[in-house]
Amino acid sequence: MLLIALLACPLLAAVLAAPRSLDRAAVERAGVALAGSAFLLSLVVATRVAGGGVVSVGPEEFLRADGLSAVLALIVTGTGLVALGFEAAAGTAAATPEAEGAHFRRYHALAELFLFTMLLAVTVNNVGVMWVAVEATTIITAFLVGLRRSRAALEASWKYILIGSVGIALAFLGTVLAYFNFVQRVGVTPFALHWTVLSRVAGALDPDVTRLAFVFLLVGYGTKAGLAPMHTWLPDAHSEAPAPISAMMSGCLLPVALYAILRFKVVVDACVGAAFTDRMLILIAVLSVLVAALLLVRQASYKRMLAYSSVEHMGLMCLGSGLGPLGVTASLLHAVTHAAGKSMAFLLSGAVRERYGTSRIGSVRGLLRAMPWTGALFAASVLALLGLPPSGVFVSEILLVRAGFRAGRPWVTAAVLVLLVGIFIAVLGHLNRMLYGDPPEHLRARDHPQRLLPLALNVAVLIVLGFGIPGPLMRLLGTAAGIVAP
Amino acid sequence: MAPDLFSRLVTLASSLVLLSGIAVLWRHSLEAYIRAFARQSFLFVVTIVLVAAQTGDARLYLVAALVFLMKVVLIPNVLQRVQRHVGADLEIHPYVNTPASLVITGALTLLSYAVASPVTTLGSVPTRGGIPLALATVFVGLFILVSRKSALSQIIGFLVLENGIALLAVLATFGVPLIVELGVFLDVLLGVLVMQVFVYRIRETFDTLDVDRLKKLRH
Question: According to the 3-state scheme, what is the secondary structure of A421-450?
């Protein structure tokens, strides 16, 4: 029941966007209230499963949440709450002018459906339905990316839907191969595509077909996770989408795709041993961080800068996933801290863009004087994302490095560290150019600190995790990591 | 039907599916692309009916009917309307010319036999002869997608790829569970409808369907 209630929240909010009798403010208030309930419900789920339990409903556990699902559900609902709250707090002088007027209802309904599909993907037991949910996110967000209707937005959404659809089609090919493998070795059973069933019989599967299936799954879901070399759609889509959507796409959609890979990693590892998947994950991770570093050095747009930073951080999460139990713990913690930092940075970048009317780094001057609160928080979120202590990202990155050395991968870890230093220097340079100097003449210093209130959740997460991981969270992360890498 | 005859018929049907995918590569008009896709989908339906008749699985008839409705009737009609509406009919300068395309297709087919070898050795199903051909269809679809410039051709490439995967699912496992199958149908249909909306918008905004013009966003 708990899971049904959780999934019902965003659905109900999407339905509430339809009736004309509700005005914009009412729709937004309802959206925030329901997003808040969804967040609380996932906290309840998290406490139930933190010790290794499972919450499930339906025949053969159709909906099923374990520790891993709970971490992702927390990330999705938390990011959704902040993004919707930020938009509601911005009021009619919205941070997203393109979401005005008649478009608003459609926009809001799609955003809620987006949240619903992500939640479904992480709580459904059947990997086929999980695929359907992830594919649905592509279709929904393609509309949201193209909302602005400018040439750039159109180009971004075309690339996004095409590359996303092909990637996800390849993931389906992998799913079919896994199912074929199962049917050949075990026989036809009604619940063969359930993850619980698949992982239970994994030992009996054919190793060669399992490896082949994983390659397709990694390329397919890796495309959605923004991992190099399939990342090319990401900077376009994330920089052209309205800020709250960018926040959700970066903060939670990317980790949801990685979640799908991790679910299959469990099955594949039980069949052929962890070395195979670990090697592939590490390879693709290092490539992602490298590509991100190279493209961050010469970056002219701050929204694209944030997007490439997502490629970097997905690379780090992917790296952790291939480094054994401690690595997976670090990776999941990193997913939490990155979601907090990146959603905050994207939301604030929307406010900056609204004010300056451009997303070029070179055209934004004197941010700290023109928008003291927004500028300071933007700087704080970017610095946090760079891993500056005391922020949660610093802690998760340190944990990741420790996992790297402990897993016997000192060279890979050192190489990634060097790249991180390079990224640090490059992004700090871009940030400095934006923060200082004289703001353009026509911009008077004006800021609305009360609008930034919803970001308190992000700030709290980043600061608290910067000083140490609270016991209950550590227990949850440990349980989740135990599922991926026993 | 004798098992031997059945598996030969299935292999024949699968090769025809692959061939109608390759047909796209030597044609130049978008109209012909759409017809080739409709033909391919029809051959796919025939394959499903063959498998259904052999296994006696009533569910597969339902799947065949749905595929027919969606991929032989509905989607080709939608695409034809788009094509007439935007008035473009030629894929003028593909990135790769016809002879080179056909050579590459041959290489891709060989590659898919190599990739599919663990699958065919494991499989005891009488339909396994068609599996490499289905995989080749996937690769050909991918190749159409990256080598052709018109937004409509790219949609065709995606659909050919999708047909390849669906064919693989039917041949290898006699169809994935129905709930997943239905979800996949819904997603493909919605995906194509969304893509067609974007084709209109691209045409409106850029005055062409040539995606080569879409290069404002770099790095």
Answer: HHHHHHHHHHHHHHHCCCCCCCCCCCCCHH
What is the three-class DSSP state of A360? strand
CA distance B169 to chain A (A): 6
B186 touches chain A (CB under 8 A): yes
Give the start-to-end residue ranges of the domains of chain B.
3-211
- Is A8's Cβ below 8 Å from some Cβ in B? no
Q: Which of B168, B177, B122, B116 is nearest to A185 (CA)?
A: B122
Distance separating alpha carbons of residues A203 and A426, to the nearest angstrom: 47
For A116-139, give the secondary structure using H, E and C.
Answer: HHHHHHHHECEHHHHHHHHHHHHH
Is A152 in contact with B216 (Cβ distance < 8 A)? Answer: yes
Residue A315: name the closest of A294, A287, A340, A293 by CA: A287
Does the beta carbon of B142 lie under 8 angstroms from any beta carbon of chain A?
yes
> Between vectors from CA B48 to CA B46 and to CA B53, what angle results, nearest 5°?
95
pLDDT digits (tens, 9 = 90+) for B127-151: 888 899 999 999 999 999 888 888 8
Write the DSSP symbol of residue B175. Answer: S
Residue-wise pLDDT tens digits, A389-404: 889 999 999 999 999 9
Q: Residue A313: count other Cβ atoms within 10 Å of its Cβ.
A: 29
φ, ψ of residue B29 in degrees (nearest 5): -100, 140
Helix B178-206 × helix A127-145 angle, to 10° = 20
Sign of the C-alpha dihedral computed for residues A188, A192, A198 and A201 taken in this order: negative
Is the interface score ipTM higher than 0.95?
A: no
